[in-house]
Amino acid sequence: MPKLRFQPVTADLWPQFEKLFGSRGACGGCWCMLSRLKRADFEKRKGAANKRAMKKIIASGEIPGILAFDGIEPIGWCSVAPRETFPALERSRNLKRVDEKEVWSIVCLFVARPYRGQGVSVELLQAAADYVRKRGGEIVEGYPFEPKDTKWPDAFAWMGTVSAFRQAGFEEVLRRSPSRPIMRYYLVQ
Length: 189
Hints:
The chain is α+β, with helices and mostly antiparallel strands and 189 residues long. The chain is 28% helix and 23% strand. A seven-stranded mixed sheet has the order 1-2-3-4-5-7-6, sandwiched between helices.
């Protein structure tokens, strides 16, 4: 495992973000916009429109997440922001709020194929918690996928895996669905 460094995505890092996401927008033209839009709007905007929307968010000064680098190579992404940033969570029956506490949500993890299975997701989750701590947040929440079978496509891991969240120090707080727990990392006890 290489020594990684992490940086919040700002406008000057757009080229590295774009390089990591590649021509497919990470997965199927998403550009990490799924949790920010209504499903119908997301489907209409897949690809170039989602890319423009994310570029506009980053250019505005909003930080939508952090990048992981191996040297100068961008190799991983974690979308982390205050929960209110992601209206899709509020519309979800399984992922609706646990309580009224202010939380920061992790809604996407993306790791370049050559780096998968090496613990990058765990380090990204820990870096996300550090990022939130530095911004005064007290709780980081994630919504990983826990498959029924041991074999499943990488595309299902876009919200992370339960094992990675546990390794990063998150604990399960609620489960409304067999495969989708809500996990939290408490920055202040």
